[in-house]
Structures are given as structure tokens and as C-alpha cells.
């Protein structure tokens, strides 16, 4: 009797693990997106190209959780001062967001609410920016993220993502971004 009960428990646990594994594979996705971002912190602005790499998981039929890395723009000194080859501004961040979704015939409409740690590194050589010959701003800032977008079905495992988002954080940091990307479901 004890052997039969143990056998039933082992088979039940294995069945649950196999079911969970199959569900996890269908619910996991990756994002690669490129776009444009406008950053502003204190008295400095940077409008540049941006990219996003992320991974997400469907936690319920109407919710995803997504995390990843965003490059929020970079300006080289050579862009502003020819002959100098070093960064004068770089914004990047790690994010974790919850996405509410509504599935339709052509794709999924979603909204994003989350948090981001933004690394802002500014080294200015322009007297107008900070009133000195050289000033620095090197901070890790906490920020909130809100956004909305649409994942358009291209194939049963591939979607085209259109997204806009707004980021607001410490020290009056703000960013507005638009992304066009590819979502692949695993």
C-alpha cells in the first residue's frame, strides 16, 4: 500500500513538472527593439537613437512581467568636438515592468507600469551647460516607467512591437521614447 501511494505521488509530481515546463516554454518571450529617446536631467538634454533588449513571461492570461536592459542614448565628444574620441554623455538602464494586455485578432494591445534604475553619466565641456570648463554628473537614479504599445502578429511565434514610454525619476530625470522591435515567443 505504501509503495502504491509513493508511486502515485511521484507520477503526479512528474506530470506537474512536465505540464509546467510546456507552459513556461509557450509563455516566455524575448524583445529586441530600436528607437529614439529624448533624455533630460537637470539642465542637460540628449536626443539620440536607443535600443532595448528584454525577456518576458506570461504570468496570467492578462499579465506579463518583463525585464531587461535599455540603452537610452549616448553622445560622443567627437559628435560635439571634432578630434576628441570619448563619451560625454551616456544613459542606460535596467528595468522591470508589469504589462497588462488585451489580445485581439491582429495582435496584443498592452500598457506598461514599472521601475527602472537609470545610470546617467554626463561629462560636459560646454561652458553653457554648467557654467564651468568641465562638469560631471554620474548618478544611478531610480525612475518609474509607464508606456503603451501594440504587438502585431507576424507569425505564430513572432510579433512586431510598436511602443511608446515615459520615464520619470530622481533629480528631475525624464525620458520619452518610441521603439519599433521584434518579439519572439519561445
Walkthrough of the structure:
The protein has 186 residues and is of the alpha+beta class. The chain has one domain (29-185): Porin (Beta Barrel), CATH 2.40.160. Helices cover 18% and strands 67% of the residues. Strands 1-2-3-4-5-6-7-8 form an eight-stranded antiparallel β-barrel.
Give the helix level as a range of percent: 10-25%
- Give helix and strand order, one letter per element, not per position: HEEEHEEHEEE
* Rg over alpha carbons: 22 Å
State the helix count: 3
- In CATH, the architecture is Beta Barrel
Topology (SSEs and partners):
Blueprint: H1 2-27, E1 28-41, E2 44-60, E3 63-76, H2 77-80, E4 87-103, E5 107-124, H3 127-130, E6 135-155, E7 158-169, E8 174-185
Antiparallel strand pairs: 1-2, 1-8, 2-3, 3-4, 4-5, 5-6, 6-7, 7-8
Q: TL;DR?
A:
This protein has 186 residues and is an alpha+beta fold. Helices cover 18% and strands 67% of the residues. The longest helix is centred in the N-terminal third of the chain and has 26 residues, at 2-27.
Descriptive key words:
3 helices, alpha+beta, eight-stranded antiparallel β-barrel, Porin
Amino acid at each position: 500500500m505504501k509503495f502504491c501511494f509513493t508511486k502515485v505521488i511521484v507520477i503526479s509530481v512528474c506530470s506537474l513538472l512536465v505540464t509546467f515546463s510546456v507552459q513556461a516554454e509557450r509563455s516566455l518571450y524575448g524583445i529586441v527593439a530600436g528607437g529614439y529617446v529624448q533624455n533630460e536631467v537637470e539642465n542637460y538634454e540628449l536626443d539620440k537613437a536607443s535600443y532595448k533588449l528584454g525577456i518576458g513571461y506570461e504570468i496570467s492570461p492578462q499579465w506579463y512581467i518583463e525585464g531587461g536592459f535599455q540603452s537610452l542614448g549616448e553622445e560622443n565628444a567627437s559628435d560635439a568636438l571634432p578630434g576628441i574620441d570619448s563619451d560625454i554623455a551616456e544613459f542606460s538602464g535596467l528595468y522591470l515592468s508589469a504589462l497588462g494586455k488585451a489580445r485581439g485578432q491582429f495582435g496584443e494591445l498592452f500598457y506598461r507600469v514599472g521601475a527602472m534604475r537609470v545610470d546617467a553619466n554626463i561629462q560636459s565641456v560646454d561652458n553653457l551647460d554648467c557654467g564651468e570648463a568641465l562638469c560631471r554628473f554620474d548618478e544611478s537614479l531610480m525612475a518609474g516607467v509607464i508606456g503603451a504599445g501594440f504587438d502585431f502578429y507576424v507569425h505564430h511565434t513572432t510579433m512586431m512591437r510598436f511602443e511608446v514610454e515615459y520615464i520619470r525619476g530622481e533629480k528631475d530625470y525624464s525620458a520619452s521614447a518610441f521603439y519599433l522591435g521584434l518579439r519572439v515567443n519561445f
